[in-house]
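[agent] plan:
  1. take the single chain provided in the ticket
  2. run structure prediction with default settings
  3. attach structure tokens to the ticket
  4. add a short note for the reviewer (M.T.)
[agent] executing step 1
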Amino acid sequence: MGFGEIVRSKFRASTQRPLRRRRALAFGVAFATLVGGLTLGMPIAANAWACTTVPGSTLTYVNPFVGSANETQDFSCTRPHSGLDFAKPGYDHFNVVAIKAGTVVDRGTESSCHGKYLVVTHTDGVEDAEAHLDTLNYTVNQSVLQGDIEATTGNTGDCAMGYHMHISTARNWDTPASDPWNSTSTTLFDPYAFLTAHGASL
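[agent] step 2 finished; step 3 output follows
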């Protein structure tokens, strides 16, 4: 979590409505630009991943955490940032819960940025990846139920500058040894737009 993110997190709790969210996120971007063109929480780099429009689904999803949390960074294909970041002030390690029942298809450590991560696939073809984790409670091919505690948040990976969780949503998740987020076959889409359209209340 970068300096701009820390400032922005004081302006928006995840339970607040979208207008407040947009103002807080815009403030964070503007502040980061003023202090030197920083991207929030990610090194400045060319966009290496593919993005797609938000898919439809007949499934109902929930938040990846219990209660409220501060959204500290939003999704962008162009800035770039591959998902949403959430933190809970005063809580280094909070529980990350399954947004829908599914099967674990990948877990590991990607030290150059995302740290410890876990990926779950669902019956509608959507995959979600949580990153910067501390403990991982499931292994590959295990089933999870909606609301199960998949992991706890951490401060792992070179892109993490504070305790928080990152969530990406994708199709065609790839698992190369280096960085699955930057695989040419992994196709990302906006987690906020998808989850809030299908039952979550971020």
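[agent] step 4 note for reviewer: The first strand starts at residue 50 and ends at 51.
[agent] ticket updated
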